[in-house]
Amino acid sequence: MKTLTVSLAERSYPIYIGENLLAQADLLTRHIKSKQVVIVTNETVAPLYLQNVQQHLSAYQVESVILPDGEQYKTLESLNLIFDKLLACKFSRNATLIALGGGVIGDMGGFAAACYQRGIPFIQIPTTLLAQVDSSVGGKTGVNHPLGKNMIGAFYQPQAVIIDVDVLTTLDNRQFAAGLAEVIKYGLIRDENFFVWLEKNIDALLARDKAALTYAIEYSCRTKSDIVAEDEHEGGVRATLNLGHTFGHAIETGMGYGCYLHGEAVAIGTCLAADLSQRKGFLNAVDVARIIELFARANLPTKSPTELSAEQFIDLMAVDKKNVDGAIRVILLETIGKATLPMPVDNLSLTQTLQLYGR
User: Which pTM value belongs to this model?
Assistant: First the structure.
C-alpha cells in the first residue's frame, strides 16, 4: 500500500492506494470520530461494495442512502435525499459521511457533508478510475444545474481517500476509458515524461495490468496533491487541472447530462484545446496529432458532437467558473507537459476550432 498526503496544514489528509483495501477495517475506522455514520452510494455500486464497507462498522449506527446512478442525477433534488436521511436519523455535526462510488457520488456526498450543520467529516472511497485519479482528491464538491455543470458547490476536504485498485475489476470498459482521460491530462499539463510513459503503456493500462495501473493512479494522485497543496481554491496553478474542461462541460450541458461520460467529454475538450493551442501559436502539428492519437488509443472520442453548432458551443462555454467579466477563458498547452493559466480567447479563434476541427 502507498500512502500519499495532501498537505493543507491542519486539514491535511492521507490518500491510501493499494489492493484489497476495502478489507482493511482500520483504514476506515481510524478516520471516524463518532458512532454515527451514513454511507452515500448508488444503485450500481451498492450491490457490489456496500456490504464490504458495512461489515467494518458493526460498532456504529450506520445508515445508507442509495441514489440513482448517473450524471443526470447529480442534482439538488438528489442532494436533498441525503439531507432527508441525516435529519430523519437526527445525526449530529460529529457524524461521518462516507462517499462510496464514482465522481457523482463523491461530489454530491462531499457537498452534503459541507452543508449539513455547516460541515461534517466525510471520507472518499472512489470506485471508478476517474474518481480515483481526480475527483476524490482536492475537495471540490457540488452538483449540476441545467444551465451549467458544477456551478453549485463548495471546496471541502475529506478526512481520507481510500483507493482500492481491486474495485476496478468490476468497472465496465467505457467507464474505465473515461478515467484514462484524466490520467492523460496530468502528462499534458505537468510532465512530458509521463505522457511518453502513457504512450508506451496505454495497452497495459487498457488490459488493467495491476502494476501499470497502480503506478498511473499513484502518479496522478501525487501530481494533483502537489497542485492542491499549492493552490487549494484554484486561484492559480490548480486551474490547469481544467484542461479540456471548458469545452467538455459545454458538451455535457449541451448534449444533456449522461449522454457523454465526463471523461469522454474531457477527451474531446482536450483535443479541441490542443487544436486551439496550435492556432494560437503554441503547440505544433506533430504534438497535436500525438495528443489526439493517445486519446483514440485509449478508446475515447476525439471529435466534437455535430449536434452543437459553434454558436451554441460558445454560448455554453460562457457559463464557466474560469470566466472573468464575461470573457471566456480556457487552459491551453504551450507544449506537451506545460499548460497555460486560464487565458482569454477571442470568438473568431474559438469558432475556427469548433467549425474546422472534429466535424
Answer: 0.96
* Tens digit of each residue's pLDDT (9 = 90 or more) over 157-167: 999 999 999 99
Laid out side by side, the sheet with 122-126 consists of 2-6, 13-18, 160-164, 122-126, 96-101, 36-42, 61-67
Please identify every residue annotated as catalytic: 118, 140, 182, 224, 234, 238, 242, 245, 249, 262
Query: How many Cα atoms occupy the beta-carbon half-sphere of 86 within 13 Å?
Result: 25
Asked if 79 and 88 touch (Cβ cutoff 8 Å), the reply is no
Q: What is the pLDDT of residues 97-134, one digit of tens each?
A: 999 999 999 999 999 999 999 999 999 999 999 999 99
Cell (9 digits) for 261 = 461520460
- Specify which residues 329 forms β-bridges with: 344
The residue with cell 476525439 is 302
Give the single-character DSSP code of 298. Answer: T
Tell me if residue 66 falls in helix, strand or coil.
strand
Whether residue 359 has pLDDT greater than 60: no
**Terminal CA-to-CA distance of the chain, rounded, Å?**
45
> Domains in the chain, please, with CATH?
2-170 (3.40.50.1970), 173-356 (1.20.1090.10)
Contact (CB, 8 A) for 150 and 144: yes
CA-CA distances (angstroms) from residue 209 to 72, 162, 171, 244? 32, 20, 14, 27
Task: Supply the DSSP string of 94-135, one letter for each residue.
Answer: T-EEEEEESHHHHHHHHHHHHHGGG---EEEEE-SHHIIIII
Residue % of the chain over a pLDDT of 90 = 94
| Cα 137 from Cα 103, distance rounded (Å) | 10
Q: Give yes or no for a contact between 2 and 218, defined as CB atoms under 8 angstroms apart.
A: yes
Contact by Cβ (8 Å): 342, 331: yes
